Structure formats: structure tokens, C-alpha cells
Fold these 3 entries.
Entry 1:
Amino acid sequence: MPVPYKHLSTVDFQSPAELSHQATKRQLISNYISLLLIILMFYILDSMEYKVTFTDTAIKSLKKIGHQDRNKILENIELLGLAPFVKSNVKKLVSHDNSFRLRVGNYRVLFDRDDAVHIIDIIDVLTRKDAYKKR
């Protein structure tokens, strides 16, 4: 059944400007929620900061590595201490309970992570070929 013309004039049509305003309002709300989630994430990550310690073996190994590679490794270790669960190039070692490895270029940083006391203990820094040799 066709709708009479006079009833069409009572329908609430929105102009393109009104639609644009609503879309902008939704976008602002979405941006605000995203910002709150990012702030929450940084707050959680900040509270998860770990203390990083080095063994004597790790310090000796770092001294043998070239300056440029050493700086890159130390930068990655620092990031690991700030957010140990975020790094994508960290893998758990199969043969150990709490041991992990961090991949930095051609080097592997072997470390233990104690979640109870928030400590990362750097055990050794080895080249890729030496890191996986049986000892």
C-alpha cells in the first residue's frame, strides 16, 4: 500500500551535515576509547618492569662483541626488561624450565626469567652457531 505524500514529510530525514556530525561524534568516542586503552596498556606494562642482571659469563661475552652489535644487544635487553611479554623474538627453551632466548641479529641472548620477583638474569650472549651446541 503506497504511503501518502503528506506522511513522508513527517519522517525524520537527516541532512548530510547531520549524518557527518554523528559520524564525527562516533569517531571521537572511538578515538577516546582507543586512547584510554593505550594508557591502560602502558600502565600495566609499566607495573610489569623487570630488573635485569648479568652473569660474569654474559659480561665477558658482551665485551668480546663489536661495539655496534653490543649496543644493539643492550638496547634489546633494556626493552626486554621494560616489557618481557611483548617482545616477539623471545622463545622459551625446550630443555629448561624458566630459560628463554632473545634473538638479536646473529646473536642469541640466553636468560632466565623469574616472574615471582620480576628478575631477568642474562646468562650468556652467544652467536647463533654457538648458542645451540650441546654442552
Entry 2:
Amino acid sequence: MKTKYRRLFIALALLALATLNSQLSTVFAQGSLTPPGVPGPTMKSLDQIEARTAITNTSTLVTITQSGSYYLTHNITVTAGDAIDITTNGVTLDLNGFTLTSTEASPTGTGILLLGNGISDITIRNGHIRGGVTLSGPFSTVYTGSGFANGIALSVANASANVLVSGVSVMGCLVDGINLGNSATTVESCKVYTVGNYGIVANNIYNSSSDQFGNQGIFAFVIANNCSANTDSGTGNALQAQTAINCTGINNSTVGNAGGVDAYAAINCFGESYGSVGVAAYTANNCYGNSLFNTGLAASQTATGCYGIAYIYGSGLSAVTANNCYGATKSKPKPAELDCMPPRRMAAMELAKLELDCLPPRRITAMELADTLEIPAPATACMRARLPPDLSASRMAAARGCGVTISPSAAMASAPPASASGPISSTVALAPALRPTITITNTTCRKEWMRHLEYKT
């Protein structure tokens, strides 16, 4: 009985203390479940992370006059002039995957123009610039069409500093693709295709390519690393840099100083040229160069671990000091630019592929057979195998109008020969001993070939 009253007394005493002290009441309750107010935001807004301004224009010029970060929300198509002008420093422009396009019939504008002297601290990234300029034909140097004159350019040459262009593709411009000059400028992961002058110009160019350009594809004042340039219409070197690393330059144009790779230091590079040097450098390491009518690889000082080849005329490899290198000239006819000779490009390409090593030391080729008077050529099994019917005298001569009619022997060819008609009437007749005789009535062609080949009529 005493115990029961004792427990009741203790309970009443604790209840009295809880009434006097609110802190003791929490021993028995968790407080009010009603929130003290409306919950506030717990995450940062996009503007707090990176304050950016949306560009909503779709058909008019955008002019950026204030520093900051900007991004496109739509494609922009203009009918004349520029698409975007940047007139101040400290701008980041995110194309956001959209495209700037121009339909101007006679291109004068620029996709993105850094307008003013001394524009600096600019970043342009992630988008496309497109025009309608095209090359008029294979091996042509004429670019025509509508669109922009330039993709990304400066209004004052070499006047902008600390400029970065990343992840941008440019196509179909009448003049330059991306030209940033040489004041602390960098281009990375960009592509340029079909421009009438320069593809990409900057101090440093990384992981970028330029194809089909009228002058030079990659021009790096300091470093070009993992870049490529390829054209058959360029009048200058395909790729040029102070230091070229892991780069490729191919220029098969027949005009101008159309070299492949030109650098002070070339490392792990490949260069190809039609009439100039494949790879030209002060020092070349682990490089490969080839040329049809010039030097494959030329090092004005040292070449190490390099390979050079001249397919038709010139030196395979040239250097003051060559270590562990190889150079070769596949064929070396006398240089003769004759009116009756087929275009050098067709002859060079096809003869290089044939590699007619089995011909006599005099190296009488199909080209010579097509334009020479009564030159006997021994038709051995080797020659028959390497000189198929599709590379016949008529085909080699047809491009310049030197028509040839061939009467083949079954032992000489297994397919019907090609034929062509032209101002020169010639006949190839196969004797039983398989010694073809070439007869040409054009005395100018005949005399020129007799002089160069030192044969007597």
C-alpha cells in the first residue's frame, strides 16, 4: 500500500516540475509539428552558378557590347553581312549546338566577327557556321557561291589576344574558315571544309582539321598538334607550323608552292605533294614524305628515322645529316612539258601505281609509246602483267587529243582496248614477235619526243 502511494506522489511531483520548466516537458513530448514558416530554396540557380544571357534572335545581326556569358537558343540565318559581332572584352559565346547561316549572294559578311582593335579574352564554342560556297570542280582553284566571306575572323588583323575557339565547324566560306591571327590565340577540336583561302590560322592549333581550301589548311604560328589538312586546290603548303606534332598535310594541287607539311620541327608527321616537297623541315623525326615531281622529305639540318619517296622525278630524301632514314626515287624520266603529252596528273598517278620496274633501263612507258614514232618495246610476260589494257596508249593520249587506235593481239590483252579519235591519227600494230610499233603523223610531237628520248627516226 505504501509503495502505491509513493509512485503516485512521484508522478505528481514530476508533473508539477514540468509545468514550471518547459525544458523538462521535452522529456515527454517532441514539440509542435507545425513548421515555423514557408520552406526556402536550398539549391543555387543557374545564374548563380554561371550567369548567362540568352540570344533569341533568329534572322538579324546580334551585337554583343557587354562582357559576360551568352548562349544561343535558335539557329540564326542572315541575308547579308555578319551574324554576330563582338565589340567588347571578356565574352564567352556558347553556340549551344546551333548554326549560323548566310544566304548573301556575294559574300561579304562574317559568321562571328571580333569587331574592334584589341578585343581580348574571348571564348567561342560548340556550334556551326555554314555558307553555300563550293569549289567549281576537281583540281580547280575557283570558289564561288553564297554565304559568309569568313567563318570566325578579326576586323583588325592580329589585334585580338587571348582568344579561344573550341568545338566549332565551319563550311562553305569564300575566304577564311577560322582566322584568329597570332596574339595568344588557340583553336581546338574544330573542323573547316571548303573555304577559298585559309582554313584555320592561330598561334596554337590542336586536334583540328581543314579540307578543301584555296591557300593553306592549317597555319599555326607556334604549335600544330594532331592536326590534318587535305586539298587538291591549295596554292600554299597544306599544313605549316613552327612545330608540327602528329600532323598530316596533303596537297595535290598543280599550282603554286603546294607542299604537304612545312615546319621548323616536324615530329611524327606525314606529308604529300604533287609538285612540291612532301615534308619540309629544319629537323624531322619519324616523318614520312612523298612527292610526285619533287623531293619526298627535305630536312635542311637533320632527319632521324624518316622515309622519303619521289614517285616520278626528284629526290626521295634530302638532309644535311640523316640517321636511320630511307629515300628512293621510283622513276626518273627526262622533264619535258610537251603539248602532245597527256596531263601529268593522270600519267603520274597511274605510272606510280604501276611501278614499272620490269621495263627496260630506258624505261619506255605507255606515255612514251603513245607519242613516239616507231619505238619497239619488248612485250615480255612481266610487262603484260604490269601494263593492263585499261592503261593503253589510247587512254594515255586521249586527254590531249592524241587519238590512238589499237589492234591488240590476244596474247597481249584479254579485254577490248579503248579507242579515241583526235587530231592525231596513230596506229599500234602488234607484230608476231609482240613488238608494238607506234606511228604518229603529227611531226611536232614526233620531233619533240625524238629529241627528248634520243631515238632516231
Entry 3:
Amino acid sequence: MSYDEKGAEGDAVKAVDKAADAGTSAKARKGDKKNGEAMQKGKAGIVSDMYHHLNSMSKEELQDAYNSMMGTAEEEVVEKVVPEVATEADFSEDLDALVESEATLSDEFKAKTAVIFEAAVKSKISEEINRLETEYQEQLDEEIQSTKADLVEKVDSYLNYVVENWMEENKTCDSIWTSFRNRRRFHG
């Protein structure tokens, strides 16, 4: 069969189909996949499946997966979790102490008051945490800038010292070189 002709691709497809219809296939070997088993995916397929799986995860699950995959230290995670845990508190004893002397309040009113009281306290705690974090970040930034400025000043001072010493050492060399050139010109 010649594949140089214009219809070579069609001839090749026909030849493959003819070979497939010709007879039985070879016996299955030990490592062969069965028709029901899925073929392994390429890199793009794996990335696509991972994207769809990660897209269905919550932020916390995604953060945990990222930290475990990237080897992020747990200390960083603990710092982020502590403020959230601090807002989870049971205020029922405090609220009971406030309203126990008032016998005229209904249980429904007490329950609603408890929800409002807890929300207000949690809101204030969250605001205070945010304020403290902002203040800490500002202090950290100021300290970093101060340290950078000190470091730049010290490096600059050292480099000036090195240049001055180099210039002093090279004055002697320069005078010798100048003297040598002058003698060559004179004796030249």
C-alpha cells in the first residue's frame, strides 16, 4: 500500500480498521489494564481534577492542605487560630449573674438578651484583636525600617573606611608607578 498518494491518511485508517476486524486480540498480560479501568491522566488532567477538588473546599480546609503540602510551620497557623479561639467563650454564667435578680424577665427575653450580649462581646473582642494586630504591625514595620537604616549606615561607614584605606595604600603604589613612568619617559 502506498502512502504517497493524496488519500494516504484515509488508506491508513482503513488499514487499521481492517487489522482490528481481522482476528482476535492477543491474550491479556499481567500488567494490562481492563476496559473498565480508567487510563492514567496527564499532567493537565491531574491539575484540572485538583483545581475542581480544591475549589469545593472551605477556606480552612484549603489552608490546612496548603500548609501540609508546602511544609508551613504550625507556629504560623497557631498565631492565626488563637484570635478566633479567644472569641469562642461561654458567657451564660455572666449573663445569668446579671439577670438573676430580675424575676419579672421572661425566659425568651433572657435568651434574646444572651444572644445580643454574646454578639456584642465577641464584636468588641474582635475589634480589639484587630486594633492590637494593626498596632503590632505598625510597630514591627517601624522597627524594621529603623534596623534597615542602622544597617545601611553601618555598611556605608565600613565601605568608606575600606575605600579610604585602599586609597592610602594605593597612593604609595601610585607614586611608585608615576615615578616609573617618568623615568621611562626621561630615559625612554
